[in-house]
Structure formats: C-alpha cells, structure tokens
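ligand=pyridoxal-5'-phosphate
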Amino acid sequence: MEVKNSEVAFSEASKVIPGGVDSPVRAFKSVGGTPLFIEKGRGAYIYDIDGNSYVDFVQSWGPLIFGHCDKEIEEAVICAAKNGLSFGAPTLLETKLAGKIVELFDSIDKIRFVSSGTEAVMSAIRLARGYTNKDDIIKFEGCYHGHSDSLLVQAGSGAVTFGTPSSPGVPADFTQHTLLAKYNDLESVKRCFESSNNIACIIIEPIAGNMGLVPADEEFLVGLRELCDKNGALLIFDEVMSGFRASKSGAQGLTNVKPDLVTFGKVIGGGMPVGAFGGKEDIMDKLSPDGPVYQAGTLSGNPVAMSAGLASLEKILRDESFFEKLEERAKMLMEGFEETSRECSIPIQTNVRGSMFGFFFNEREVKNFDDALKSDTKLFAKFHQGMLKEGFYFACSQFETGFICEPINEIMIDACINAVKKTMSKI
Ligand SMILES: *Cc1c(COP(=O)(O)O)cnc(C)c1O
C-alpha cells in the first residue's frame, strides 16, 4: 500500500499545525505510521490522497450514521446554505429539531443547542452546579466528556481521590471539585458521597465509548440514580456518542434509569458541528435568559448544522427497524472477530450496543478502565496496520469504539471478516 502523498502531507502539516493534526486522536501515535489524509468519502468508503480506499468504521468518530455524502443530508445542507450560513437570530429549524428530541426522550422537556460535545457537557455541569448550589462533581475513570478544564481528570487508580488534572495548563484548583470513581463500581461512588456533602452531579457515559466500548451494568445505573436522589445530586447522562447510536433514544432506550440532564453531540449534527444539552423543565429554566445560569454561543443552533441534524434524525425515525438492522451487522462483525480469534488463539473481548461495537485484545471481560488498560496495545497496533493494508479503516487506538453506518452491508462485513482472518493469522 502506497501512502507517499499522506507522508508528505503530514510532514507539511506538522510545520504549521501542532503534531500535524487538529485533534490528537487523529495522529496514529499508538499504532505507528502516518495518519492518512482523506480526499473524499462516498457511502461506506473513504479515499485517501494516494488513491487508496477503505471501508470506514470511524465515520468521523461517530456522527456519520448514514455514511458519507448521504443524498438527503447533502441536499438539506445545500438548501440551508443557500438561505444564508448564520443569522445569530432564531430560526424555525431549531424548534423543529428540539421538538423531535423532546418527543423521543422522556427525560427531556427542553433542550439547548451548542456547537460541540465539549461545550454541551461543560454547560450541563455548570447548570447542575447552579441548580443544586453545590460545587463537586463525580466522574468515572476512563469516561471522556470533552476537553474542558474540570473534566480533564481521569488518572489515579483504585482509591477515590480528588482528581489531579491530566494536562498541564489546568490549574489544580480547577479540578479539586472533580471526584473520581470507578466505572461499574457502586462502592467507589458511595465513598465519594461519604467524602463530600457538596456533590452537584454525577456525570457518566451510560455506555462508555471512550475507553473502548464498555456498557454500564443496569444495577450500577440504578444505584447511581438512588445515590443521586438520596443526596440531592443530579444524574447526567453524557450521550454525545451513544445518542442516536445505541438506539433511537440513545442509551436511555436500553435502561430503565432516567437521568436529570442529557448531553448530545456527534450524530445529532449529522456531520456538522452540533452539541446539545437538555432535561426537565425546572432545571432547564434556570438557564439564561429566564434563569441566572449563564450560557451562550454565537453560532449555536446554526441553520446549516441544524438542517444536517434534522435530515439525519428524520431518516433514522422513518425506519422502524433501523437500529436492529445496524445492530445485526455489528453483531455479525464481532462474531466474526470472536471466531477468528479462537482459531488463532488470540484472546479477545467484544461488545455491541446498537450501531456501536468494540473489541479488546484482552483475556478477561472489561468492566472498567483498569481492565481496559490490561489490553494488548502492541497486538492492536499490528492488527490496525494489517487491516489498513486490507482496506478497512478502524479507529487508531485500542480504546475507541467502532461504528456501523447504514451503507455498510453484509458483503462488506464478510469481506472484513476475511481480512481479519488474514491479518490475525499473521500477527
Ligand atoms: C466525543 C465526546 C465528547 C466531546 O465532544 P466534542 O464534539 O469532541 O467536543 C464528549 N463526551 C463524549 C461521551 C464523547 O464521546
């Protein structure tokens, strides 16, 4: 496989962009080699600037549930763009998209749009603090909630500690209110509540997708709900990834637990930059301009982005069995992985939730971040390189989730499983 053009492009980019990329996850650091520069996408495929094509299981890290250049979404975007790119004034599109989401989610009466997942979570946390008049928050090791200061904490295994920031540039003062707990471990959350009576909220990915795919146990979520109710804290589901990916009502479609606030991103923008946060009326009404909690955005609810999100959502809702269909394909793919890994004596753990799938090169079931870290990342790197040569583009880290989009059909999945056989027998 020839990637000369990408190599040159990367070296040129690295002169003017730090690390050559605008988001560190794109840099291929953990798998080696050069990030591929993409020229275009069509349906299930992306094409790099050397003319290689790949079946895309990354889909811009989740948003593109209909693949690349879906006709309906494309037309909605072009049509909106012709009426003007942005007004900084209300449009009908925002109400329409908000209305659809409110209809789909029992836990949401009102929703506000922003421009990224990071912004959505940051705003939801501020609102939770403003609503409860408390300062501390609980987050889980291995969960990612965007790159805002107080959420960039995850290190520190085992004991519950007040978080230390995992990036220079974040003052320790900013993260002293972030308590860390262990995913799927209710005792670690109880210890947080014992150590502080100032907890505003728990924030969780109800299906964790940023340490690889690790779903929360139902009893664990039930326990979180009870702890929040008992202690006057809010439960926030970060559904930036799982929203419109796990089911048409996100992770909430797969659990009986209802959160107080929900955050969205990725699929909600259909490939354009959109985030959102929503919840019950009495909480959301605390937001400016009706309430005292300030939050704002020049491009929030941008009409072109709203049109892409709306077109995606309408398309999802039109097909009753949409998520069953994608889940079937995800399961087929993961079963192929399992079977092949048995044949090659490579230990693997797989998970599927709706259109999301994940696999760990790991001997034991993965329930939390510590478990995930025991995976064989060297083996993953070899696997990743091998699959690229076969024309299959997976996320360039062991700790990411894979996605099925609608144009990925069973023929492609069969071909992928064959490539997995070829690759695994060599590594
Ligand atoms: C991607 C992601 C974010 C951050 O969203 P951005 O749009 O990248 O800022 C937050 N939370 C979760 C669960 C995510 O997967």
